[in-house]
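Sanity check

After download, print the first record. It should look like this:
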Amino acid sequence: MKYTEEHEWLRVDGDLVVVGITEHAAEQLGDVVFVELPEAGTQVSSGDDAVVIESVKAASDITAPVDGEIVEVNDALVDTPGLVNADPLGAAWFMKMKVDDLSQLDGLMSEDEYKDMIA
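Expected structure tokens:
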């Protein structure tokens, strides 16, 4: 997996990249009560707002970590936003993207580099 400074994780799954937020981010947010996902088929650039997430503490935007097309979203989060707290690295993925160029992932952090950043 790769990580961003915005506390997102990315996992390559075949020709797609699965995107979610880290356990650290989920803990910082507190209990998640609302998730608004983008439409499948949306073209995004790195840094574009893609997901709105609201918790008991704050509202946050999750940005697209790379350039590409959002091909699938995790509709389960709309009905059960608490999944973000329960399983941030697994069942609570936000979107799957068809990435324009997988080499974009080369500039992202490894797990060790991410752990150093949040230490």
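If your output differs, re-run the checksum step. Summary of this record's structure: The longest helix spans residues 111-118.
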